[in-house]
Request: fold
Amino acid sequence: MNLECIGYEKRKAVGIITLNRPQVLNAMNRRLWLDFQAALADAGRDSDIRVLVITGEGRAFSSGADLKDSRDRNLTEYRAYLEELQQASRRLIRFDKPVIAAINGYAIGSGFELALACDIRIAAEKARIGLPEAKVASSVTGGALRLLQDLVGPGKARELLFTGDFIEGSEAERIGLVNLAVPLDQLMGTALSMAERIAKNASLSIKMIKRGLHMAQGETSMEALMDFEIEACLACVSAEERKVFLDTFETRKK
Reply:
């Protein structure tokens, strides 16, 4: 892969995508989104990769859309960019494997929307997080209108979106916007430690649980969800890896 705007590496069972335009605080242009999707597709195909971690190079996770890149777009070009962005977000939300966002610094606008599409968010305590679209006469993307409310409730979501105010990682943890806030020098260690713990579990179980969680968020009825739970459980218990995990679990209890 010829990746211009991201770094992509594999550490045993963990894939790491690093947004890599530090000179513009990892602002997102079309090339970055294309590179991101290429790495995401590779991680999806690679059976050795069981968890994905996304972070940023330098002082930012991502400062959001590259406004210089977007300033002179006509509406047709802007629509094409937004459709590409939304498709990348859909692929991330629907990604079969767990995804952890390691928010190392500024996570603004579509940069934070990318983190919202991840399953778990770990932030540096002093990271600056916000959705300032209303301040630049824009609107949110990446499913944030729903994802944000799911995390912090409709009232707090409205406050964050209407004011466009930034909060620090520690405050984001307090309101449930991120799972953990840790000192910056502990961020990647914490994210990788969690990724490794997840990677030790049964991959099919994680896949089925993640799919069911999406369904439980209102994408289907309770009856259909409970029917899915039966099929998911049967798929897991009939998988070849089931006996290995049962034997390991029994050994740990002794």
Remarks:
- Strands lie at 6-11, 14-19, 51-56, 60-62, 99-103, 106-108, 120-124, 128-130, 166-168, 180-182.
- The two ends are 47 Å apart (CA to CA).
- The chain has a mean pLDDT of 91.
